[in-house]
Amino acid sequence: MRNLLDFLARHYHWFLFLLLETVSVILLFRYNSYQGSVWFSSANAVAGKVYAWSSAVEQYFSLTEVNEKLTQRNLYLERQLSAVAERQVSERKDTTYLERLQMETMRGLVTIPAKVVSNSVNRLDNFITIDKGYADGVRKDMGVACGFGVVGIVYLVSEHYSVVIPVLNSHSNISCTIRGKGYFGYLHWTGGASDEAYVDDVPRHARFRIGDVVITSGYSSVFPRGVVVGTIKHVYNSDNGLSYRLRVKLSTDFGCLRDVCVISDSSMKERQQLLNAAVDSIKPKY
Fold first, then answer.
1. What spatial distance separates the first Cα and last Cα of the chain, rounded to whole Å?
2. What's this chain's function (predicted)?
3. Rounded to an integer, what distance in angstroms lies between the CA atom of residue 62 and that of residue 69?
């Protein structure tokens, strides 16, 4: 305490000077209109810069949440577009009916946002790891999609992580259909380019064109109908000549995949249980 008093006694004239300067500046800007306006403008400019920097920092740290919401929204809009396009191509164009169809298509669909923590595209059997597990509601055999289309199917689940078999895996087998046509086949990948796959077993009597969109058929218990797969780039005959093989340009870019959604369909479990019961019922009894 004594040292503090000695310091103040030795340098009191500097503190008095600063006090008088502060009072002078306040009086100058308060009682002179020109100086006051200059101070007000400068203060506003500085405050505006500070607020702009603060807003930029907040926006940067909120990008993760924004990307998750955009991924979910894109998936939602893709399914809406698929439902509307199919109905317009067929027979009815009543807008009221289309609105009801959109609502029915999305009913019961719940998505779990997740991020890709590891990924590969240069192997025959690629795998993806995401940062959500059974603690977050993820279960085996759930479908995984992103804002651009199909990604794959959940294969293994731990508490906080899951392994996904993507389209770029030789064991992947996803039921697909041609939008607006009704013909379906099965999506396979045989290696090579990561932006292309093949749809096999399309009937010979099917009518379609290059550029038509391929979507999930909804016939399996994994993906609902309408999730985009890609567009038709080329048509081949199957090895036995009884069906077509379609080369499809995938809508999902697996090389820069980051934000995905796990699809939790409320009716999936019921359909799977019914299918398992049917399979068990036809097994031979010994």
1. 98
2. Involved in formation and maintenance of cell shape.
3. 11
Judged on CB neighbours under 10 Å (0-12, 13-18, 19+), 21 is exposed
Residue found under tokens 């809406």: 80
> pLDDT tens, 20-73?
778 777 776 666 666 556 555 565 556 556 655 765 666 666 566 666 667 666
Residues in CB range of 98: below 8 A, 6 or more apart: 83, 84, 87, 88, 92
Q: Residue 35 — φ and ψ, nearest 5°?
A: -60, -35
Answer whether 120's CB lies under 8 Å from 106's CB.
Answer: no
